[in-house]
Amino acid sequence: MPSMIVPDISRRTFLALAAAAPYAYAAPQAKQIPVGLELYSVRDELGKDLSGTVRNVAKLGYQCVEFYSPYMRWTPQQAKDMRALMDDLNIRCYSTHNGENSFRGDGLEKATELNHIIGSKYIVMASANRVSNLDGWKAVADTLSQAAEKLKPQGIKTGYHNHQAEFTLLEGKRPMEVLAANTGKDVMLQLDVGHCIETGADPVAWIKQNPGRIQSLHLKDWSRDPDVGFKALLGEGIVPWKDVFRAAEQTGGVEFYLVEQEGSRFSAMETAEKCLADYKKLHG
Q: Closest Cα to residue 231, out of 205, 188, 261?
């Protein structure tokens, strides 16, 4: 039997290679971010058939959904029935959209109960009522922070979703900057990308300025064509999606994405289907 040829390596090199061997098979895997649908995108269908619409959204391949304010009319039993349906469909709800009443008093108590039942981690303020100055936005921040403190024992957090107003200068400052500066990291800054970019703000820069606070994004495009605007499908507008995804995943701390569409040249469900396909192409 021929003798085995052993490479001439030093003892130090051999020990270093041996120590590294267990990690050779433990290379970090790319984090898989769930992608869902903000159900406002299919609001007419949802109003006619709640369970059927959630079933159809799951069939399209979405991994999660975000319910909006009508869910607050549910009874606890209706929430339990929805949770059972979602479990059966293997689809999750990580956040809900709410009016300001869901952040105080009986409204907060009910929102907490329903979100706990359906497994939601974030109670998000969809928008603030008319706010005319920066002191008003500081008051919104206080409301979010106070609710966040009350929710801590439940393992639920609060969040805020922007429209255009929050990125439009007011008294020399963007209201979104005021909200970020006057809330803690237990308040999510849910970024609606389309509304942000429509104002001329840079969504990538905003994400980088707020590391670990952009746990969720509304994926909405916007076109400069006035006949299209927010009716652009993902990838048809001016959003630099590759850069947005990179910033969200490397810096923002994103936990889930949510497609939101305010309408398009297609039906609502067909729009949702096309946007999911576009997301997969853009994100990779």
A: 261
Spell out the domain ranges in the chain. Answer: 31-283
Strand duo 157-161 + 122-125: pairing: parallel
Amino acid at 126: A
**Cross-strand bridge partners of residue 14:** none
Please say whether the beta carbons of 217 and 254 come within 8 A: yes
Q: Could you tell me if 97 and 38 are in contact, meaning their C-beta atoms sit under 8 angstroms apart?
A: yes
Q: What is the DSSP letter of 178?
A: H
Looking up tokens 């009716």, which residue turns up?
A: 231
Q: Does domain 31-283 have CATH number 3.20.20.150?
A: yes
What pLDDT does residue 284 have? 86
The two tokens of residue 269 are 């469900």
pLDDT digits (tens, 9 = 90+) for 145-179: 999 999 999 999 999 999 999 999 999 999 999 99
* Rounded CA separation 281/234 (Å): 10
- Angstrom distance (rounded) from CA 105 to CA 59: 38
**Which of 7-11, 262-266, 278-282 has the least mean pLDDT?**
7-11
Q: How far apart are CA 210 and CA 254, in angstroms?
A: 11
